[in-house]
Amino acid sequence: MELVVAGPADEALLLDLLNTTPVIDGVAHDELAESRAARKWLRDRGVAPTDAQLAALREVRPVLQGVVRGEAKPAALHGFLDGVRLEPTVSGSGLDWRLAVDDAAARVVLAWDALRISSPGRLRPCANTECRLFLLDRSKPNTARWCSMAVCGNRMKARRHYRRTRT
Ligand SMILES: [Zn+2]
Q1: Any idea where the Zinc finger CGNR domain is (predicted)?
Q2: Which domain holds residue 90?
């Protein structure tokens, strides 16, 4: 029995969710705070734009952010996996099993765990401590430090340069 727990769309949903609380110019934002924008956000990612899905994602988000930052234990994710179940179907040669996940919060938790196993350490917080974003490093050397080279990478480089030239 081979079971696919999470695919690229689930990983993208996870990373996007983790990154919905950016700090811009020192001010914390929440891209899921406003109901209309949040519904569009859900629809764009193939999630049913319902109050229940939105509430569940808002609830699991800080827990997952804490776990990825190493500030919370994975046990905190307990309770977000209700409704995940195995569904058998009879095929020509026997049974096929499929994981049924109706809940978007469960989807991102499963995606987090699948990445933990397949790509350990590659989902991590941006090295810019003033940035609250996360990155998923798919590069071979696995040395990416910034959520975005264009934003945080250059900002940190400029800061180091500024310090060097001052001293
Ligand atoms: Zn960053």
Answers
A1: 122-164
A2: 8-120
Residue 55 covered by a domain: yes
CATH of the domain at 110: 1.10.3300.10
- As separate numbers, helices (DSSP H) first and strands (DSSP E) second, the chain gives 5, 6
pLDDT tens for the chain, 167 residues long, are 678 889 999 999 999 999 999 988 889 999 999 999 999 999 999 999 999 999 999 999 999 999 999 999 999 999 999 889 999 999 899 999 989 998 999 999 999 999 999 999 999 999 998 889 999 999 999 999 999 888 888 877 777 776 777 76
Q: How far is the CA of 147 from the centre of ligand 1 (A)?
A: 4
The rounded distance, in Å, linking the Cα atoms of 61 and 6 is 17
Distance 95 CA to ligand 1 centre (A): 46
User: What is the CA(132)–ligand 1 centre distance, in A?
Assistant: 7
Residue 45 lies in a domain: yes
- Which residues hold their Cβ within 5 A of ligand 1, which is an ion? 126, 128, 131, 133, 147, 152
Judge whether 162 lies within some domain. no
Distance 30 CA to ligand 1 centre (A): 16
Using CA atoms, how far apart are residues 86 and 136, in angstroms rounded to an integer?
28
